[in-house]
Design goal:
The chain is mainly α. The chain is built from nine helices and no strands. Helix 2 packs antiparallel against helix 7 and helix 8 packs antiparallel against helix 9. It starts with 8 loop residues before the first helix and ends with a helix.
Length: 216
Amino acid sequence: MRFVWPVPIAFCLPHIPENLMPLARLIALSLWITGVSAADSPWPQPVRRDTNSREADLVAAMIDQRMLDEAKEICLDQQQRSDPRSDESALWAIRLSLIATQRQMLDDRFDDQEIAAAQKPVDDLLGSYPDHPRVLFLNAQKLAVAREAAHHAVVVASISPTRSDQIDQIFTRLARVTTNLKESAEQVDRARAALDSNANTPRQRSMSADLLRLHQ
């Protein structure tokens, strides 16, 4: 994975007034991380696997329509019906996290407390099964929550009065997300290389393919 820092914003936006440059840099960095996420992010959304699950399709549609309470009820019901160590259980935990994330994106606040709440469905599963077969995918969803919170902070800062120290805090958050994205992608690469060295079963080959999609 190539990981190249963006061109300094001062060269890209030379006509921005000096007093607005910190906010301009913040927005530019956020947009660049969005581009990195599209190509290099470890799983910004649930694993895209071919499925005939009516419930999964229904939840996706409900999230799009912001019917978040109804979507959450379906996810909780389906998760309770799943083997906790199964792919299905991991996917339902991630969908629950997505719903919580979507809820916070519609709110004014998406700080540490809200991040923890959006990550909780994943944390609960990993707390009981820290060696879950889909641990990399679950951890990637936690990172996706942090990334969305950082973007949310940028949007709020761009439309409301923001102190310079608040902008510095958002820069710090964005930098941390960027570092975590890189580390997670490297971890996925290592896991896939180790798996490919001995991928003899259909399950192993399927996992390798999923890890490749996770990295893309």
